[in-house]
Design a protein that fits this description.
It contains 10 helices and 10 strands. It is α/β, with parallel strands linked by helices and 267 residues long. The chain folds into 2 domains: 196 residues, 2-enoyl-CoA Hydratase, Chain A, domain 1 (Alpha-Beta Complex), CATH 3.90.226; 47 residues, Lyase 2-enoyl-coa Hydratase, Chain  A, domain 2. The strands form 2 sheets. It has a 6-stranded mixed sheet with strand order 1-2-3-5-7-10, sandwiched between helices. Strand 2, helix 1 and strand 3 form a beta-alpha-beta unit.
Length: 267
Amino acid sequence: MAQSVRLERYEGWRKLVLNRPEKLNAFSEEMHALFSQALDDAALDLDCRALLLTGEGRGFCAGQDLSDRGAGDFSTIDLGRSIDRYYNPLIRKLRNLPKPIVCAVNGVAAGAGANIALACDIVLAARSASFIQAFARIGLVPDSGGTFFLPRLVGEARARALVLTAEPLPAETAASWGLIWKAVDDDKLIAEAEALAAHLATRPTQALALCKRALAASQANTLDAQLDLERDLQREAGRTPDYQEGVAAFLEKRQPRFTGRPRSSVM
């Protein structure tokens, strides 16, 4: 039986494929466990310098597999426990991974599936794909960071409409609104996403991780606090081997050969 998350390894990067196509890659407990472990492993592997996330089949991810929860007395169900145990840790791992994450949305991304995509760094989507904040359709509120990401990416008015109507947002509109980076022809999506992940795997990995930290902090910081953070992160970046290589390559008029390695602790 195939695992619900498939890992593919390439030189410098990895591809994670949500692999329950018969369920539109809806999340089960097994999928959560495998996905979480794959992120932990990637974070610790210095040879992995970028990730690509996509889905198998005709959908990216339909969110939670409701059948996985089973029937029962709804008055005793605590959905907050499921969020605390599975979704919140997953979103935090995606946002805090010190490596770039490309997401290729190959079909519908609904509910938590849409917000998992938005938690990635660069999102490409097939033109036939759509994003649906489907929670209101079953009497729930957006989770997995949906109420955080949406207003920041598309503005308050559009975020409210997407949440309250639970209507699909086509990929091309999502791109024009700034929800994702861009829409791509269906037959070119995976190739373009793979090329982007492979390219990011050759870049200065430590600097990209610091860029992610700066951008994440800017959403809550004052200008003065952000300027101080930029100073501190620049100091850290300036001590990496890749900065030294980048300057040398510039002066020698050649392409840099970044390694993505952190500064050695041995002086």
